[in-house]
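We emphasize that the prediction below concerns an isolated chain of 184 residues; any contacts that depend on oligomerization or on bound cofactors are therefore not represented. The input was used exactly as deposited, without trimming of termini.
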Amino acid sequence: MTSSDKGRAGSGIVREGSLVRLRIASAADLDYIMATENSPENIRFIVPEERSFHRSGLSGPDMVHLIVEEQATGERVGFLMVNNLRSPDHEVEWRKVIINKKGHGYGREAMLLLMAWSFEDLGFHRGWVDCKDFNDRALHLYESVGMKREALLRETLCTNGKYENLVVLGILDREYNEMKKSIK
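Result of the prediction step, given as a token string:
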């Protein structure tokens, strides 16, 4: 089994926590993914993708979509898009981290589960995410789980005629392992 296949067998559940679980998305989740991405609470903080992009990403060997489900009810509360699963440099991109049900700790736990899956199960060396520089909630979350700001990409996106900056945050496997010790 390759690292990109690990965690895909059986129920599709890749990791579980006390609040949420992560499962591999299917075509049945595509409407939810599109609605989540395009909701007014989320769209200003992300770069939306076309439906065809998400559809092809559901079955692509280098990308996976994960649904974040509430542990108690099974309700979908967000989705994650993970890229570079076959990176020869052992570097994974957490391309989208979108939680619909905010303020319940789901984003933090989902991020910790995503990191555990990436580093412990799949054996990646580095994980990274980018984030619009005005998304204070996401920046706080990423830094609270041990990610470090690595770069500021100035005026790299043009959204509705306005240029926006992206912050790149990353974490190495050894930094993840140290962070994990401190939260136990």
